Amino acid sequence: MRLRSVKERLFLAGLPGMDLPFSLLVLTLLCFGLVMLYSASCAVGQYRFDDPYTYIRPQLLFALVGLAALWVASRLDYHILHAWAWPLFGLSLVLLVVVLFMPEYNGCRRWIVIPGLGTLQPSEIAKFSVIVLFSHLISLNHPKMKSFSVGVLPFALILGAVTVLMLLEPHLSGTLLILAIGAVLMFVGGTGLRWFALAGGGALAALAGALILLPDLVPYAASRLSSWLDPFADPLGAGHQTIQSLYAIGSGGALGLGLGNSRQKHLYVPEPQNDFIFSILCEELGFVGATLVILLFVLLLTRGLVIALRAADKFGALLTVGFTVQVVLQAALNMAVVTNTIPNTGISLPFFSSGGTSLMMLLGEMGLVLSVARQGDRPGL
After folding, report:
1. Less packed terminus of the chain by CB within 10 Å, N or C?
2. Distance of alpha carbon 319 from its chain centroid, rounded?
3. Distance between CA atoms of 68 and 198, rounded to whole angstroms?
4. SS3 letters across 82-105
5. Which domain holds residue 21?
6. Does residue 50 form part of some domain?
């Protein structure tokens, strides 16, 4: 077998093309999301900025950049991430510290303002770096994952550092998502089951400690909890967004009011282009449209797991599980918030909600999954 050049190894020359089912699912979600974003945001853009294209215009640009990132990532050898695992994590910690000194927006500090370019959300980079670092460590130490010193302690320290910084923003939804992704990767990676019970107790202790050490988090969490339990107790305040969201979902019925015909997006649902875009989708496309979106996310997870099972090595399998679980779990949490199944935690709907950092990172991650798929069942590469 001839030795492959650096260029061939880096850019996967001679390997099969992109996984067609996964690629089509990603493109379908992206196009569907862009259409719904324009429909949900055109009214608020017109009212606030006299421009119905305020939100969709930059999102289209971010989508193009993200598609380019997807294509490049799909052609790169994902094994190069081994060398970048710790530097990426270090960068994410630095950005999570920097964001704490940024101006507040709705009582939170989640975005770094870059003059002339827009904003950057460090939590998106943190999610990516945690998945890469966990996959790196687990793949190197897989035979020892059942021990506490190898299979629990380093991961707990990593998650602890990220958790503290994200709670300082505060960003509860992002914290819960990263903790859940980490737990899934540890479970798949072989961490002993007995440690998960211990981790549950530790998580509760950490939460109690956070509530004591971070007093600003107490009223923030209490407000979210009270408005979830009874949103109608404060219909013009904390419960307003949830109430309007439920009105939108209920008025959609089975088939919806029709694309573009939402009434709640006319400044009734606050920020319809962001966290509560799913409620506008339900209003315009009804139960059928909402079911279709859920099915697309389920199919994405299913295909992602197939790719993970066929991966050439443990590192590729873990990356694929981490990225696909992140997308689907985030979508599930967003839908749960919109339907008031869980408290409002401020989490976006992947591929649908407005947000440049999120979309570009998401498409880049999907490109890495396609890279794993291209090298699947070929352990010699």
Report:
1. N
2. 14
3. 43
4. HHHHHHHHHHHHHHHHHHHHCCCE
5. 17-374
6. yes
